[in-house]
Amino acid sequence: MTAPILRRLSDLRALHSDWRREGARIGLVPTMGALHEGHLSLVAAAKAACDRVIVTIFVNPKQFNNAEDLAKYPRTELADAEKLAPYGVDAIYVPDPDQIYPEGYATTVSVAGLTDVLEGEFRPGHFDGVATVVAKLFLQCGADAAFFGEKDYQQLMVVTRMARDLDIPITVQGCATVREASGLAMSSRNLRLSPEALGKAGQLYPVLQDLANQLRGGADFGDIVAGARATLATAGFGEIEYLDLRCAETLEPLSRPDRPARLLVAAWLGGIRLIDNIAVDQLND
Ligand SMILES: Nc1ncnc2c1ncn2[C@@H]1O[C@H](COP(=O)(O)OP(=O)(O)OP(=O)(O)O)[C@@H](O)[C@H]1O
Ligand SMILES: CC(C)(CO)[C@@H](O)C(=O)[O-]
Ligand code: BAL
After folding, report:
1. What's domain 5-175's superfamily in CATH?
2. 63 lines ligand 3 (CB under 6 A)
3. What EC number(s) does this enzyme carry (predicted)?
4. Which one of 15, 18, 109, 210 counts the least CB within 10 Å of its CB?
């Protein structure tokens, strides 16, 4: 059955009070729509861990630092509701813009440090927009747990820190990246890749896997990163905004090889910006 689509906070709150009376554990999956298997894996995780699940769909203008990207962001609400139907979601919250940013709205949530690097460097203001809307969604939905994809690894770190710093009583759970058969991380923006670019895009993850394997074997990142960049260039990738090895918890440059590490990449292909990442534990010291 298709879940009710709610556009007003007051309607969400009414449902929420009923669920609280039932003693239900409430799960939240925030999205910007154009749902794919990656989003649906978060919904499945939420359903497995919670009694009631809210999926939100809101294309948040404050996190777009590129007007064209915002204008071209896919909007597919009906198809999204159909994809959610088999999961038994309890509510789809598609807030009218004034429910999130009413006239005179003036508050920004900003997580320092963690947001200065990687995505933060190349998408200025992006994480302020993310932290602000996610804080609002956490508070509006009053959920006990929220589910985010590791595909947006830095975002996962940012919202976890934001909830902790603001004492929002919610558990943030990261979920593994869902991939196409080629290894390409599923992403709504993949819809904008040409068939030719789609063919090339599958080469990004194997490059990360290869780097990770070499690092696990004791290679020095500085010695192997140029080769990886060259492989991507040969495959047809354009600008590589970053390809970095970072501390998995703080996203600072890795200073101690005994800490969990993460390789993260953002690269342009056929006019579309792709991001991906991979865990690299077991680095040799
Ligand atoms: N392939 C994936 N595997 C697991 N989670 C994912 C995947 N893609 C997106 N998600 C998660 O779904 C949530 C909503 O993401 P969003 O709606 O931005 O989708 P997206 O596909 O990442 O789109 P975009 O093209 O904007 O990056 C986020 O927590 C995101 O990390
Ligand atoms: C978390 C989020 C829904 C906030 O707008 C968005 O950044 C996304 O879809 O990953
Ligand atoms: N998937 C993260 C949201 C964004 O790229 O704007």
Report:
1. HUPs (3.40.50.620)
2. yes
3. 6.3.2.1
4. 18
